[in-house]
Design a protein that fits this description.
Layout (H helix, E strand, L loop, with lengths): L3 H7 L22 H13 L1 E6 L5 H15 L5 E6 L4 H10 L5 E3 L12 E5 H5 L8 E7 L9 H11 L4 E5 L8 H10 L5 H8 E3 L7 E3 L4 H9 L2 E4 L17 E8 L6 E2 L6 E2 L8 H24 L6 E4 L3 H11 L3 E3 L6 H12 L5 E4 L1 H4 L11 E4 L6 H8 L11 E8 L3 H28 L3 H8 L8 E5 L2 E5 L2 H5 L7 E7 L21 H18 E12 L1 E3 L1 H4 L5 E3 L1 H11 L3 E8 L3 H8 L4 H6 L10 E7 L23 H8 L13 H5 L3 H14 L4 H13 L19 E2 L10 H5 L11 H11 L5 E4 L6 H8 L3 E6 L2 H29 L4
Parallel strand pairs: 1-6, 1-9, 2-4, 2-5, 3-4, 5-6, 10-17, 13-15, 13-16, 14-15, 16-17, 19-28, 20-21, 20-27, 24-26, 27-28
Antiparallel strand pairs: 7-8, 11-12, 18-19, 21-25, 22-23, 24-25
Helix pairs in contact: 2-3, 10-11, 18-20, 28-29, 29-30
Organism: Fibrisoma montanum
Pfam families: N6_N4_Mtase (PF01555), SNF2-rel_dom (PF00176)
GO biological process, one term: DNA repair
Length: 837
């Protein structure tokens, strides 16, 4: 199994190298220095992303990478380039410079022949399933960001189809750094990391908005280092230490043109308020209406710009087919248009002709010609006849003329209406954010180059150092890795262990690799637990208890590949882990949770979806306390070496019967009237329900009827259960106060989503049941120190470890606050009895 230190260092996951080591002398001499470095890096990696800015030679880099991999591997299988329409001629042109000929365009793999090595196709052929990926040794997706414009299922199909190709590359000049799903989809396709693992490791998910991701602040540096181990972000040659001569971008001027025109009065149906200038950012309907009504005014402004400067070439970007027709009519035959259903040869002729300067004006959509094509040699002026929120399409279109090789200052004219002001502001803000994040990514390349071994050394600094200890009367709280700390504890020294273990790799509680939540899989999590559990067993006194709080794990559809959500039996895996190391399972206490609250966080038990197909639906997940026992020294009577005793006056026969007896509920008849419910507020409804549950036999149909009645009178909450099931069985605890925890301060600090505080009610019962006053209660995952807090409150001693310094510090405040309050109470007790005198 290796040492614990070796295990921790194995968590530093960077991209694997699955390619070929190619020496510099094997590269084509025509390549420029930065291109040579990237080609060597890509060949060695085998599956990599090349995010190089416009004009840095991505076409040449891709061709040379494919040539070398084909020549120095088996040399028998073909290679494939997938690119947008209108770009293939650039690959053919650069291929000739490298001596690669022919590069054959195919619409289906049925067209392949035995003598050709290089093939090229477009994304539409892939989407239609006309390309058999198994025919190829290597494939490169040029302008791969185009995948985001396809529907999710199509993109997923494309990526899955090509994952069997040994060498895979994705290339684009403008990956959106803040579109995290796009980036981790690339990582999954390239075989770097499973998407589910990447989501868990790096991102905080918004429980109120499905799919909304926020990069953990504490994981941000690691995320970009990990990205840079498989994705090369480069904006100019100097990012890799080379001279930028010949790679100076021209001056860029963005000229906004605000259009106003007379409109009919618009009346908001909801508010009844009227306005002369609608806000088209409010809805798609408003935006579409504004586009239609403003089209003549916008196109007239475009025509004014073009006619006032007839000696320059113009690139016209539009979004609507009606706009294209009107532009064509307004500008006449000097304007060539490219559109979706156009004959492919005609489209190719117009794009190539405009790029070569034979046609002075080109009109097209960003999604058609905004990616890949180089149009800078004869054109330095562009007009956006309209705008929308699609930043990537916008910036790609701008860079058709604003790129290395452009020798004249560029002008980009943006025409929008007074109803689209907010859309324009948002577009400019996204552009600025893109520049900022791109700068952060290239900083890593400038510092470390393309040497991932340096990334490895840098990330080793994330291993925990700096042990700290805080102590008081009867308590010790340690800021350290629990494994390292528990190794130092004496055998048979602890009376009770109560803890809530991390739920596998569900959350990361600390930025350190020592964190148990910082594991790629559940299997890796339990591998780390294998270093801890033997010490828990060793340090616990014979016959005593380890009470472990757990919950089963939701396995989302993207994790299990089934299209529906399932459950990982995490509690069973925890049981297996503890039993493997000598513990005996005594019981499993069930703690009910609120299914409505759970659905609001996970979106897996939706009422609407349940009505469509009940077979997709499971049930709410309870929490469990797994009670493990270390065998006593003597098996004669199975008493612990130091028993936990209660007097019969303290522990009544009645309480014993409830603790020992399993109670089954049976049917009854009584219903609660809707009118009675109407007169009550929700607190009274819950009181009435609990009273009925306590005095009546359970009736499922009555329970449903009450819920339905509350719904009819608009009193059934959508965020929590108004009348949750009640239980009499002592091992099903339905009266836990969910908010009675110590994490209010963490919620205020924004950390509440990252911790799962064990409720004080549960801790109290476990300490009462399984320990004697004055004994030592320990918690290896102390968190904000709920267990030590409750142990001290119940006259026990407390010991806990916690890796996250901030949680440890907050826990100290809780424990010290309790210590002060208990000292004050002791003084008052003495005063009352007269002993203080």
């Amino acid at each position: 199994m290796g040492t614990y230190q070796e295990f921790l260092e194995s968590k530093i996951t960077l991209a694997p190298k699955t390619g070929l080591q190619i020496s510099q002398d094997k590269l084509h001499p025509i390549l420029k220095p930065h291109q040579r470095d990237i080609v060597q890096w890509a060949c060695k990696g085998g599956c990599r992303a090349i995010f190089a800015s416009f004009g840095l030679g991505k076409t040449m880099i891709q061709l040379e990478t494919l040539r070398l991999l084909h020549h120095y591997s088996d040399g028998t299988r073909a290679v494939l380039i997938v690119c947008p329409l209108g770009v293939k001629h650039e690959f053919v042109r650069d291929g000739l410079k490298l001596g690669i000929t022919p590069i054959r365009y195919i619409t289906s793999t049925d067209e392949m022949d035995a003598g050709t090595v290089f093939y090229i196709t477009n994304y539409e052929r892939i989407r239609r399933g006309q390309i058999d990926a198994s025919q190829f040794l290597a494939v490169t997706f040029d302008e791969a960001s185009i995948l985001r414009s396809l529907d999710t299922d199509t993109t997923q199909t494309i990526l899955e189809t090509f994952q069997q190709v040994p060498f895979r590359f994705v290339c684009t000049a403008t990956p959106s750094p803040n579109r995290y799903l796009e980036l981790i989809n690339y990582a999954e396709y390239l075989g770097i990391m499973d998407r589910g693992q990447a989501l868990t490791r790096f991102f905080e998910r918004d429980s109120t908005t499905a799919g909304n991701l926020t990069l953990y602040a504490k994981r941000e540096r690691e995320f970009w280092l990990w990205m840079s181990s498989w994705a090369c972000f480069i904006t100019k040659p100097s990012d890799l230490g080379y001279d930028d001569a010949g790679y100076d971008l021209p001056e860029l001027t963005v000229v906004p043109h605000l259009i106003s025109f007379e409109r009919a009065v618009s009346v908001d149906r909801k508010t009844g308020q009227s306005t002369f200038v609608p806000d088209s950012s409010k809805s798609l309907t408003d935006a579409a209406k504004e586009k239609r009504e403003s089209m003549p005014h916008r196109i007239e402004k475009m025509a004014e710009l073009v006619f006032n400067d007839p000696h320059n070439h113009w690139l016209i970007w539009h979004h609507l087919e009606d706009e294209r027709k009107t532009i064509q009519h307004r500008l006449g035959t000097t304007c060539k248009s490219v559109w979706g259903s156009q004959n492919m040869d005609q489209r190719e002729e117009f794009l190539t002709g405009f790029a070569e300067g034979r046609y002075p004006i080109l009109s097209t959509k960003p999604e058609i010609a905004g990616s890949g094509v180089n149009l800078q040699y004869h054109c330095h002026k562009a007009v956006f006849v309209g705008i929308d929120y699609k930043f990537n399409d916008f910036v790609q279109a701008v860079h058709r003329i604003f790129r290395f090789g452009q020798e004249r200052p560029c002008e980009v004219h943006v025409i929008y209406t007074d109803a689209e002001t907010e859309i324009y502001k948002t577009l400019m803000q996204k552009w600025q954010q893109h520049r900022t994040l791109q700068s952060e990514m290239t900083d890593i390349i400038r510092r470390f180059g393309l040497n991932s071994d340096l990334y490895q050394q840098e990330l080793k600094r994330e291993l925990f150092t700096g042990r700290k200890v805080a102590e008081g009367v009867g308590w010790t709280l340690i800021n350290n890795d629990c494994v390292a700390e528990w190794e130092t504890f004496s055998d048979d020294s602890l009376d009770l262990i109560v803890t809530s273990i991390p739920f596998g790799n569900h959350y990361e509680y600390s930025e350190n690799y020592n964190c148990f939540g910082h594991n790629e899989t559940n299997e890796k999590f339990f591998e780390q637990m294998d270093f801890l559990v033997p010490h828990l067993y060793r340090t616990l006194k014979p016959g005593r208890i380890a009470a472990i709080h757990v919950k089963d794990r939701i396995r989302y559809s993207y994790m299990n590949g089934t299209g529906f959500t399932s459950i990982d039996p995490f509690s069973d895996e925890t049981t297996a882990c503890f039993r493997k190391h000598g513990f005996h399972l005594l019981t499993r206490i069930t703690v009910d949770t609120d299914v409505v609250q759970e659905n609001n966080q996970t979106y897996r038990l939706g009422w609407s979806e349940a009505c469509k197909d009940m077979t997709k639906m499971g049930a709410g997940l309870p929490e469990y306390v797994l009670v493990f026992r270390k065998a006593p020294t003597s098996s004669d009577n199975a008493y612990a070496d130091v028993p936990v005793t209660h007097s019969k006056e303290q522990y009544s026969r009645g309480r014993w019967q409830l603790d020992a007896h399993a109670h089954w509920k049976t049917s009854g008849e009584r219903l609660v009237s809707e009118e009675a419910l109407r007169r009550l507020d929700l607190r009274d409804v819950l009181k009435l329900w609990k009273a009925l549950e306590a005095t009546e036999r359970y009736d499922y149909h009555r329970h449903v009827a009450i819920c339905e009645a509350l719904d009819r009178i608009k009193k059934l909450p959508s965020t929590f259960m108004a009348v949750p099931p009640q239980a009499n069985h002592p091992d099903i605890w339905d009266d836990i106060t969910r908010m009675r925890t110590l994490n209010s301060e963490q919620v205020k600090k924004g950390n509440g989503k990252h911790i799962c505080p064990l409720q004080l009610d549960i801790i109290e019962r476990l300490i009462e049941r399984y320990s004697n006053p004055g004994e030592l209660v320990a918690d290896p995952f102390g968190g904000i120190m709920s267990v030590p807090y409750q142990a001290l409150k119940m006259k026990r001693r407390a010991l806990a470890t916690e890796l996250t310094t901030a949680y440890w510090q907050d826990g100290i405040k809780h424990v010290r606050g309790l210590e002060v309050s208990q000292s004050a109470l002791s003084i008052f007790d003495l005063i009352e009895t007269g002993d203080a005198l």
